[in-house]
Design brief:
31 strands; globular; binds (2S,3S,4S,5R)-3,4,5-trihydroxy-6-oxo-oxane-2-carboxylic acid; hydrolase
Length: 540
């Protein structure tokens, strides 16, 4: 958004400040400040007093401000945000101090920077958009209120629920279907029940994504003091060694890796862009996407529920390396916050612990075991995966701990550029090895090639629309063989749309592996993919 390169490239602190009046009539209510996404490190002040600091860019945090607010006059809310990444942040970044470690290569001296100059490079390619990226709320609630609802509901109608209040008071609840008919009622802060004749939530192509509302009432001294409504769905995810099942029917993931990225807004949440993206995903025949490489906005999760789009929800751990130095405790905390935020969404069918960690190191095993155990303990209803990139089936130390294995592969691009004839045999051999060793369902979560929209070359050459299209077609031939052998549980193109990256010799104004441009116009490859996806969706 900025027109200033210094601000765009700034590493360190920036400050946000805003005045806000809370009406005097709200005295007696409890107030919380809630931040949906502050990337990366944020400290919040109210009327000049420091309140809370938070680490990590894409998950919400809140702080109670009831006793610190000025009622009836303006309050100054200040947020200091720092985007510096290091080995102990998630995602990780690395400092490059040009002048501290002089490097001489032949006649070149790579130390031509002023004293103290450095860059901070993330272990990922997407541009590290920083700052307050999503909505900030002032939440007003009664003194005694409902804090949270957790509901686990399966497609035959049984459910387990828990309503948290912080106090022990009376809870009454009812369940409403999507025509607002009451289908169940009960009482108690936790328990289980059975709704007969339930309409399950289905991913698109398999049925309707029916939703229900769990409405809880908090009763104190025979008075209803708070009502909390949570949307949920009745659906079950299970898996065998070959397949994923939703509501006992095989589910094949037809989808995309994406980014929350657009011109001008960067990673700032934009409802119009979200709507366009999900409309295009449906137009393409997709039924699934992965929230590469961080949790996406909460509003998107609600839209996915409504539209029947299945989601692999990923923590912000992209490109982790340096075990055991990597920050295991922070990673676990992020996983807990992700599950806590998104646990009730029927669209979320799986938790992804990380994208392309360097799990060839022995030390990575304990690190990932702690994460897998946490995910299973927090949520026994969903499978857990990790997305592998740099490792292969022979040297990975962690994949046996998982329920489902995801693999990113770039045959014909990062591996054997130009050798399109080898894509097929390489991919089949590679993925069959993963299967043979681990015997779990496998999803290819990334494949593809860059193409500059409008760059046409016949015969094809790298970066042309033709080359991207041909890689995709060759990869699909391999997918079909793997599908016939019951080895593949899903496929996802990298990427849905072109996106901004940091500057690098391999990126020309961003990453161009999108099948849509950054402005969401279709490239040649989009039509190839659409034909395949609509055909696959028909078979589900
Ligand atoms: C990958 C990464 C993704 C990159 C992509 C690429 O394996 O998971 O974040 O954008 O490759 O295009 O290099």
């Amino acid at each position: 958004m900025t027109a200033d390169a210094t601000l765009r490239d700034h590493i360190g602190w920036v400050w946000y400040e805003k005045m806000h009046i809370v009406p005097e009539r709200d005295v007696g209510m409890r107030h919380f400040l809630r931040f949906s996404s502050v990337n990366y490190y944020g400290t919040v002040y109210l009327n000049g007093q420091e309140l809370i600091s938070h680490v990590g860019g894409h998950l919400p945090f809140e702080v109670e401000v009831t006793d610190r607010l000025l009622y009836g006059s303006a309050n100054k809310i200040t947020v200091a945000v720092n985007n510096t990444l290091s080995w102990s942040t998630i995602p990780q970044g690395d400092f490059n101090y040009y002048n501290l470690q002089p490097k001489v290569i032949g006649n070149w001296t790579l130390t031509r920077a002023p004293e103290g100059a450095f860059t901070d490079i993330g272990n990922f390619d997407f541009f590290n958009y920083a700052g307050i990226l999503r909505s900030v709320y002032i939440i007003k609630v009664p003194k005694k209120h409902i804090k949270d609802i957790h509901i686990m509901a399966e497609h035959r109608g049984s459910f387990i629920y828990e309503v948290s209040t912080g106090d022990v008071d009376e809870i009454e609840f009812r369940i409403l279907d999507d025509d607002e008919n009451e289908v169940y009622s009960g009482s108690g802060a936790e328990g289980k029940g059975q709704v007969d004749g339930v309409r399950p939530w289905w991913p698109r192509g398999m049925g309707n994504p029916s939703l229900y509302v769990f409405e809880a009432k908090l009763i104190v001294n025979s008075q209803v003091v708070d009502i909390y409504r949570e949307v949920f769905g009745f659906r079950t995810v299970t898996w065998s060694q070959d397949k994923i099942f939703i509501n006992d029917r095989p589910f094949y993931c037809i989808g995309f890796g994406m980014h929350e990225d657009f011109e001008i807004h960067g990673r700032g949440f934009d409802r119009a862009v979200m709507t366009k993206d999900l409309n295009l995903l449906e137009w393409m025949g997709g039924n699934c996407y992965r929230t590469t490489h961080y949790p996406y906005d909460e509003e998107r999760m609600r839209e996915n529920d409504r539209r029947g789009i299945a989601i692999i929800a990923e923590t912000p751990a992209v490109g982790l390396k340096g075990f055991p130095k990597a920050n295991n405790l922070l990673h676990i905390k992020m996983l807990e916050d992700l599950v806590s935020r998104d646990k009730n969404h029927p669209s979320i069918i799986m938790w992804s612990l990380a994208n392309e960690p360097h799990t060839e190191k022995k030390e990575s095993r304990n690190y990932f075991k702690a994460l897998v155990d946490t995910a299973h303990a927090l949520d026994p209803t969903r499978p857990v995966t990790t997305v592998y990139g740099p490792t292969n089936s022979g040297n990975d130390q962690t994949a046996d701990l998982l329920d489902i294995i995801c693999v990113n592969r770039y045959y014909g691009w990062y591996i054997n550029m130009g050798s399109l004839d080898w894509v097929n045999s390489s991919l089949i051999y590679d993925i069959a090895q993963w299967k043979e060793i681990f015997r779990k369902p496998i999803i290819i979560t990334e494949y593809g090639a860059d193409s500059i929209s409008g760059l046409n070359q016949e015969p094809s050459i790298d970066f042309s629309e033709q080359y991207q299209n041909e890689i995709i077609m060759k990869t699909h031939e391999a997918f079909d063989v793997l599908r016939q052998q019951n080895i593949l549980a899903g496929e996802m193109i990298w990427n849905f749309a072109d996106f901004m990256t940091g500057m690098s010799t391999t990126r020309a104004v961003g990453n161009h592996k999108g099948v849509f441009t950054r402005n969401r116009q279709a490239k040649m490859a989009a039509y190839t993919l659409r034909k395949r996806y609509l055909g696959l969706l028909d078979q589900t």
